[in-house]
Amino acid sequence: MNSPTALDYNNGTNQLLKNVYGKDMRDVTENTEKIRSIYAGHASKHENHIGKINLCSDLASDSFIMGENGILRKTDILESIVNDVPKFSHLHTSADTLYFHNLNRSDVTKFDLRLYEGDDMKALVDEVLPN
Amino acid sequence: MSETSSLKYVHVDSVNRRAGESKSRITVQVPQALENCSRIALKSFSIPNTFSNKINKKIEWIEMVQTVENGNNIWKAALFTILLNDLDPNQQYLDNVNLQSVHQTKFTNEAQAFILKTEISDDGLAFTNSGQFSHSVGSETAMPITITYDTENFIFKISGKQNVATKHKFMVLFDDESDQSLWPTMGYHNNKLIKKTKYHSFYLKLIRV
């Protein structure tokens, strides 16, 4: 059996690199620059990279979020806000129909508010947030 | 029987947070306790969409080159890292064109100052950070890498060119799962990035070829 060529790796005839972002960069005629380039799968979202903000609070401990494999996970998300506005504009949401969370406290004198990013709930660090 | 309820609103302006308190995690003291409160909801929320996009970010990739030693066909590999921690601290935002330009400068790696090398053992198991800035695998010279950005379709493209045409040279994008990788925000799907935990099984497939 002949060894795979660079073209075999890059056009998927050989499956090794098929499901990863990888190419054989061997500089041979048939392995053109176009063939041995690693293209992004979708448009860059770097310029407006935060797609969703989750506003969490210890008052909203009755929330659930669907994680990987469809497994529900308990969270304290008060509301999820989708970022569908251009960069350098204002992200604003206002609810006409309120999404209520049950509260198991008689009195509220103090609560916390926290911001997380996206479905994987990455903490938004201070350096990323506007002043 | 009728049920009566009343709504009370709490307005929170994070500008008035205590000195030194985090911007993303604040504690709100309510001057007058909300009594017999049974439900809570968000009425409105507002924030400027000026999030910084260049904090603690990096890109990483693995290069593998096929070599022959003592008549045996083996693969040498190394992990390379470009950090974006040396940019102007006053510049909180990079657009795609600027990002391409910054990356290209670092890929060019003049004075061997931008590409950090992590050695990968010949069995594909051990990653050893050398702390050295170098862009070579085994005895190979550095492979030129070009990054372009298509401003019409917003697509990034990475191209390499192996100098020694007689050898296979793979470049595979890598994610160390530290949440610092820029690849996903640049448009590269996370599930097609090689992870450290999956590299060895990839390596085993590679040497069977």
Compact overview of the structure:
Chain A is mainly β and 131 residues long. Chain A has one helix at residues 6-11, and strands at 22-24, 37-39, 52-56, 63-66, 72-75, 77-82, 90-94, 101-102, 107-117, 122-123.
Structure, described:
Chain A has 2 domains: 1-39, no CATH class; 46-123, no CATH class. Chain A is built from 1 helix and 10 strands, in the order H-E-E-E-E-E-E-E-E-E-E. Chain A has one helix at residues 6-11; strands at 22-24, 37-39, 52-56, 63-66, 72-75, 77-82, 90-94, 101-102, 107-117, 122-123. The N and C termini of chain A lie far apart (63 Å). In chain B, the strands form 2 sheets. Chain B has a 6-stranded mixed beta sheet, with helices on both faces. In chain B, strands 8-9 form a two-stranded antiparallel sheet. The longest helix of chain B is centred in the middle third of the chain and has 13 residues, at 96-108. Chains A and B meet through strand 1, strand 2, strand 6, strand 7 and strand 8 of A and strand 1, strand 2, strand 3, strand 9 and strand 10 of B. Strand 8 of chain A pairs antiparallel with strand 2 (39-40) of chain B.
Task: Name the descriptors.
heterodimer, A: 131 residues, mainly beta, four-stranded antiparallel beta sheet, two-stranded antiparallel sheet, 1 helix, B: 209 residues, six-stranded mixed beta sheet, 11 strands, elongated
Q: What fraction of the residues of chain B are assigned to beta strands by DSSP?
A: 35-45%
Most residues in contact, chain pair and counts: A-B, 80 and 73 residues
Radius of gyration of chain A: 23 Å
Number of helices of chain A: 1
Q: What is the average per-residue confidence, as pLDDT of chain A, rounded to a whole number? A: 88
Instruction: State the share of residues found in helices of chain A, binned by percent.
Output: under 10%
Q: How much beta of chain A, percentage-wise?
A: 25-35%
Biggest pleated sheet of chain B: 6 strands, mixed
Shape of chain B: elongated
**Secondary-structure-derived class of chain A:** mainly beta
| Count of helical regions of chain B | 2
Sheet with the most strands: spatial strand order of chain B: 7-6-5-4-10-11
Morphology call of chain A: elongated
Mean model confidence by pLDDT of chain B = 88
Domains of chain A (count) = 2
Count of extended strands of chain B: 11
Number of strands of chain A: 10
- N- to C-terminal separation of chain A? 63 Å
Low-pLDDT residue intervals, each spanning 5 or more residues of chain A: none
The description of the largest β-sheet of chain A is: 4 strands, antiparallel
Radius of gyration of chain B: 25 Å
